[in-house]
Amino acid sequence: MDKEAKIYVAGHRGMVGSAILRALKKQGYQNIITRTHKELDLCRQQEVEDFFSEEKPEYVFLAAAKVGGIVANQEALADFMYENSVLEMNVIHGAWENGCKKLLFLGSSCIYPRMAPQPMKENCLLTSELEQTNEAYALAKISGLKYCEYLNRQYGTDYISAMPTNLYGPNDNYHPTHSHVLPALIRRFHEAKERGLPEVTCWGTGSPLREFLYVDDLADACIFLMNHYSGNETVNVGTGRELTIRELTKLVAEVVGYQGKILWDESKPDGTPRKLLDVSKLEKLGWKYSTELEDGIQLAYEDFLHNPVRAQR
Known about the structure:
By secondary structure, the protein is of the alpha/beta class. It has helices at residues 15-26, 45-55, 70-75, 77-97, 135-155, 181-195, 215-228, 245-256, 280-285, 293-305, 308-311, and strands spanning 7-10, 32-33, 59-62, 102-106, 159-164, 166-168, 199-203, 209-210, 212-214, 235-237, 243-244, 261-265, 274-275. It has eleven helices and 13 strands.
């Protein structure tokens, strides 16, 4: 991408979009377009078509999405499928209709089968059934990346997709029940410390294995892929390292400074037993993560402390 190229970041107020925006500015990209939800509703096809017709961005980072943890996904299956399917199709189609040079679509590691061989390679997509707790979201994301692939095959476009692992960092959602596991733990332990609670109860057994990537590392990887990768197959973005939820919980408690007892409510769902990405493809291209988990959690906690409005959501 030329430093003066017109770049549209869809979802620039979210955790991923805001990180991409920070990274682009840091790397010297000058001509960046953004729109708030009030200014442009990506679920409204006509609004999206009018936007692309008027602005004609050369590059698009599609980071807009309706996201949430296990509870949010289970409570709003239809909403997660509809909103994500519609907005991504509108944006990708609008980009294609108006001659966008290159688009990067962001998916999620939950697109891979529940019992996929570990670590999960890109080619295991659609080889067996999905995890039921986030199937609706996963199906929407699979549709988006497949649409990019089909445009490439039918029309010769250069649209790529990246599949990040579990993300965390600045501008995260810290809702007590609708957020993902790491920000939820930050909030839970912080509030327990503030109230002097002797114990904290966490969901599930603590046995599932998870991988976590600091969101600014993802943003750097997205720009790297936009500049160095073309292809129909998606690219995994992660660390290639994992730990149990129980280990993660202890680490978050240490960073936050909570010293009480940690209990486990095994009546709550665990989700997928293991979800580790094979990141060898991205490493062979020349990119590797730089933020270690403990350092990243500390940065995320500082963000939580300095953003009281977000922390109360």
